[in-house]
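Q: Sequence in, structure out?
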Amino acid sequence: MNKKIYPVKSSSDEVSSKSGQFNRVKIEIAVGVILIIAIIIGGAVWLENKKTNPPIVQNPVVPVQPTGPQVCTQETKLCPDGQTYVSRSGPNCEFKPCP
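A: Exactly. Output:
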């Protein structure tokens, strides 16, 4: 008949197991605290940077003033006589008076 032999745990094995678990908990707490501090510092730097540096506009829209002659649209207006048409002209592109 085969006898199974089981290892006997000593009290020193239990102490080292518990201290190993305690060390692991200490490490996890330290890592968590470091991460929280890093998030707080990163958020503070981001907010300060946002206050001091407004967003950069890549392509600002600048109104362009015409420098050449005025060009009017090619519209016509029917005069009250029903047969004559007048077009726009002049610096304000107004319709010419009906004849």
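Helices lie at 11-52.
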